[in-house]
Structure formats: C-alpha cells, structure tokens
Design a protein that fits this description.
The chain contains 10 helices and 8 strands. The protein has 304 residues and is of the alpha+beta class. The strands form 2 sheets. Strands 3-8-4-5-6-7 form a 6-stranded antiparallel β-sheet. The protein has a two-stranded antiparallel sheet with strand order 1-2. Helix 1 packs antiparallel against helix 2, helix 1 packs across helix 7 and helix 3 packs antiparallel against helix 4. The chain is globular, with a radius of gyration of 20 Å. The two termini are 13 Å apart.
C-alpha cells in the first residue's frame, strides 16, 4: 500500500511529465488503492485521533461510527499504537475518505473542486458537470464519475476509469467492473474542466498551510536535494519549509517571498525526479524510519 507522501510524489511526477488530467486522475485513484473508508472524511490523516473526530460528528450513524472504531487497532483496543497497521505502511501515514471524499481528494489534485457536501448535492449542482445522465448513455472510453441512485437521492459515487473499471471507496478503496449489477451503478456525470486544453492548476501555498499539496511541494524539494530536516515531507508549511522555499527561489532566480505560486510550482515540477535504491545492512528499524521520513521514499526489508 502506498503512503500519502508516496502518492503525492507520484502525482508531482505525473503532472511534471505532462500527463493529461484524466490520466492523472486514474493513476492517482489507483495509487490510493486499499486506503481506508471513514464516513465524512475528505483526504484526512488516517490516525486514531482523526477517526475519533469523525466518530463524534453529530450527523454520523451508529453503524458508521462502529465501523470506524472497529477498523482501527488503537480504538478497538487490539493494540496501543499504529505500528503494524496496514494503513500505516512503513510507519508512514495514509489518508482516509468516504466515497465522495475520495472522489473530491483525487480530483482536487488536478485543480477540480466539486461543490456539494454529499453525493446528492454534488449531483444536483450542475456547475460541477458538462453533461450527465443515465449510465446507459455514458461514454465508455472517457473518465467520469458514476453514481448509485436510490430514488431521488444518490447514495454512492466512484471514478469510472474509461476502461470498464470503477475505483471507489467503500470500506476501502477498491476496483470493481462497470457495469456491475451487484453494485447498481445507475448514472454518470462528466466533471467540468476534466477535458480540454486547460493546464492543471496548482494552489498557491504559504506558511501555515497544510495538506497534500504541501506534502507534494516538500517531496519535490527533497527530490531536488534540499534538506527539510528534521521534519521531512510532513505536509506542514512551517519555518523550516519556508526557509527552504526561499532558498529554492533564490537558486532559480525567483522572487524570494516564500510563497509557492505559479512560477515556483513551475520550477519545482520542471526539476527531474531521480530515484535511487539504497541497501544498508544491519540498520535498525527506528533509524531506517528516520531516514525515510527525512528524505522520502519507502523502506523495504531484504527479501520483500
């Protein structure tokens, strides 16, 4: 399973290589395979404290609350820490979502932000779509969203990948065929801005920001040789990141304002990504985890 920082690094590489928005969407969704489901979450850190937050929301049902607790080894009491959890690979965080949260998180990476807090409200806001209708009329070779209808409401949403497959978050991020009577997919919708010549727009980042785009920015800095010790690509734009961003801007003849806008993003994404495999024998797990945290990448034991 990929960590959140790994997915962010992959997204940056795909964007930098010039892949189209639909291709980035499909690759990103696939890279998030097996990430966990948490009702109400939109790309939230998969941690016990975040799970407790969503369990405590007033709108959540008792079944969803129990499922969130049951799936967490800390909250269900089977362990006292996240170590060894499948959603904490190599001691690196993943993200949790519900079905519409997963869709929103994936599409936000290519600059598409859907309106509506749930499946039905997303569907009903026509500004989200260039076209929509019954599944029978869906273009079979194009990426779009698919919905399950229950009466007038839409109860579930997923990403149709244009190849007869849907990636969606239900208990976990999974791939299922389309059409599939067991799921009951009934409608499709083509997102506004997914197709056309408009480039992927990256958000402007400043000190105090956090989240996936900060992780992506930090990952690109690390990949180009900049030192973000002691925190690494932690998704938080603090003083260390600010200092490094200003140094990066100085090295690339950019305004040294510490704001990651269009010009800084272009320079970051234009930098090549070189991946190395390093073998270090007799290295303790805690030291290895520190190295991965500081410099990115993933840790594998010999024989894996």
């Amino acid at each position: 399973m990929n960590s959140a920082s790994t997915v962010s690094g992959l997204v940056g590489a795909w964007i930098a290589s010039g892949l189209s928005k639909p291709d980035v969407v499909v690759k990103t969704a696939a890279a998030c395979m097996d990430w966990s489901y948490v009702w109400g979450a939109v790309g939230a850190d998969c941690t016990p404290s975040k799970r407790e937050y969503y369990m405590g929301r007033s709108a959540i049902g008792e079944k969803d609350r129990e499922n969130i607790k049951k799936a967490c080894q800390v909250l269900n009491g089977s362990k006292t820490a996240c170590d060894g959890c499948k959603w904490y690979p190599n001691n690196q965080r993943t993200l949790c979502n519900d079905c519409q949260g997963f869709v929103k998180n994936v599409f936000s990476r290519v600059g598409i932000n859907f309106k509506g807090g749930g499946c039905t409200s997303m569907w009903n806001d026509n500004s989200n779509w260039t076209e929509k209708g019954a599944l029978a009329n869906m273009p079979k070779d194009k990426v779009c969203l698919v919905f399950i209808a229950e009466g007038d409401k839409k109860s579930h949403v997923g990403i149709y990948c244009g190849n007869g497959k849907i990636i969606h978050c239900s208990h976990y991020v999974r791939e299922t065929p389309c059409p599939d009577k067991s799921w009951g997919w009934s409608h499709y919708a083509m997102p506004t801005g997914l197709y056309g010549d408009a480039p992927i727009e990256m958000p402007t980042l400043r000190k105090g920001d956090s989240g996936e785009y900060v992780t992506l920015m930090q990952t690109k800095l690390i990949q180009q040789g900049y030192n973000l010790e002691p925190y690494g690509a932690d998704g938080k734009f603090g003083n260390t990141t600010l200092k490094v961003v200003k140094q990066f801007q100085a090295d690339h003849d950019l305004a040294q304002d510490g704001v990651v806008g269009k010009n800084t993003w272009n320079a970051l994404l234009a930098g090549g990504t070189t991946l190395y495999t390093v073998t270090i024998k007799h290295l303790g797990a805690s030291v290895a985890n520190d190295i991965v945290k500081k410099y990115g990448g993933e840790m594998k034991k010999e024989g894996e």
